[in-house]
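User: Please look over both lines:
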Amino acid sequence: MADQTTRTLEVPGAVLTYDIRRSGAAKEPPLMLIGSPMGAAGFGTLSGYFTDRTLVTYDPRGVERSRRTDGANRSTPEQHADDLHRIIASVGGAVDLFASSGGAVNALALVARHPQDVRTLVAHEPPTAAVLPDRDVALAVCRDIHETYLRNGIGPGMAKFIAAVSHQGPFTADYLKRPAPDPRCSGCRLRTTVLATTLSWHRT
């Protein structure tokens, strides 16, 4: 992949930074890779597998290089969707979109509001517990993770996060009665930004 350029875009409440990696062999629309709260840097390795595509990555508002100008400390999926809509317009039109985690939630908001912006969406593991059949318990699990993080810190909070995302099948009423997992487990050494995604479940 060659000819990478970095651009900024002023939008309501923020200045966004995004990268374009152009491929001379590209015959398809640009491929956009997004996460949330993960920024463009998290897609460095994955980008290397798409040498035949022009790639677009960005830092969501308030993350890494994209700074807020509105003084807010929270963002909604609708705000992120508007940011994505403006970036897509700036790169010339519809894209194929791979969106992971919180980015998948934002992408679903985007296609609901601006379906013409996306040719194909792959929504990878959107944390949309509120729409699941077991939502009451699932949301209670999310709240417990959030409260554990606030009360006991990153280790115990991350241990519960790993246990929750590793759980197979629906959450049942007795899930929260289980003993708390050991925060010394190897999975708890994941980057702390992953926990921020879990906390976004509680907020959205």
